[in-house]
Amino acid sequence: MKYVFQFARIMGFCLAGELLYALLPLPIPAGLYGLVLLAAALLTGKVKLEQVKEAGDFLSSLFPLLFVPTVAGVMDVWGLISGNLRPILIAVVPVTWGVMAVAGRVTQWIMNRRGENG
Amino acid sequence: MAEFIQSFSVWGVTLTLGAFALGTWVNKKTGLALFNPLLLGGIFVMIFLSLVQIPLGEYRQNVQFLSYLLLPATVSLAIPLYEQWQALKENTLAILCGIAAGSLTSMCSIFVMSWMLELDPALSASLMPKSVTTAIGAEVAVELGGISSLAGAMIIMTGIVGNLSAATLCRMCRIRNPVARGVAIGTGSHAVGTAKALQMGRVEGAISSLSIAVAGVLTAVICPFLANFLP
Q: Quick one: how far is CA A79 from the chain centroid?
């Protein structure tokens, strides 16, 4: 029963997220609202970690599986992709590497600098 | 054959689980990062569907149950975030700057490429938000005049590249700090990359999921502005 209640609590936050998405005119998906709400509830102690932990960890471990249909969906736009292969490959491979390198290096650089000063 | 398979109510979900399990098995056997369970799983599903001639639409409809789980799975990312709150609070400035720098790199690179290769505006618009989560990115792309399904495919391909190369890239760029690794993966390759970050460590996973949220919002705000200047 413990897991059922954990799941129910998480679904409650999903519902709240969807409600905010419907009410607010921002391009933020429901999941992000729910995530922020649950994080806030945990931080303020309204929800205890053991009230969501196992079910939540199970749900987030499903992520790779849940994207399998999306990967298979690439098949549907294959015509569009193969017609523009060069720009798409540039955008998807080296640009992604660049983004990751810049984001990671900038973060690490600032953290190191602060470490030296403090 | 197709009719027989489709007479089972859970055929799509079972196929997805089986393809993913097979992908995991191949990944373990070979030990190659390129043979990623998610990528292999998707390819196995494609192969199966074309072999038995079931249209993709039918499959999608049958696995809708799985996409419903995306919402609670996303919300559950609050748990690692909460568990790593200390690491996050101490490095707020560094994390935010890293995400902003990464998001700008993404959008500006696509912007410059669109000019240099004189891309079709619809293609540029579909590529612009490629580093953020599908939920935000597909919407932004449509708003800019892009094609939703194409944007979705670009986003997932970006995620796969991130997922496959995260470990190697962090090593080559000497990104050793777990917080910085999380920022790199989340900003560059959203939830698909985060699946990898979660395997690397809980700090990486937590920061990566936070980065998805921040990068997504930043992109949604900046993209429409940049798109005004597209060729």
A: 29
B19 close contact with A: CB closer than 8 A = yes
Residues of chain B neighbouring A42 (CB-CB closer than 8 A): 78-79, 82
Closest to B96 measured CA to CA, from B217, B214, B223, B216: B214
Secondary structure letter of residue A118 according to DSSP: -
Give the pLDDT confidence of B181-192 residue by residue, as tens digits.
999 999 999 888
Extents of the domains making up chain A: 1-66, 73-118
pLDDT, tens digit, 9 for 90 and up, residues A27-74: 677 888 898 899 999 999 999 999 999 999 999 888 889 888 988 988
Specify the pTM: 0.82
Q: What is the ipTM metric for this complex? A: 0.88
Rounded distance between C-alpha atoms, residue A109 and residue A50, angstroms: 36
Residues B130 and A92 sit within 8 Å (Cβ to Cβ): yes
Cβ-proximal residues to B187 (8 Å cutoff; 6+ apart), any chain: A99, A100, A103, B98, B99, B102, B103, B106, B131, B211, B215
pLDDT tens digit sequence for B131-182:
888 777 887 888 888 888 888 889 989 999 999 999 999 999 999 999 999 9
d(CA B22, CA B87): 36
List CB contacts (< 8 A) between B114 and chain A: 87
Kindly write down the DSSP assignment for every residue of B194-228, as one continuous string. Answer: HHHHHHH-HHHHHHHHHHHHHHHHHHHHHHHHHHT
Domain boundaries along the sequence of chain B: 2-68, 78-227
- CB of B39 within 8 Å of any CB in chain A? yes
Upper half-sphere CA count for residue B132 (Cβ side, 13 Å): 35
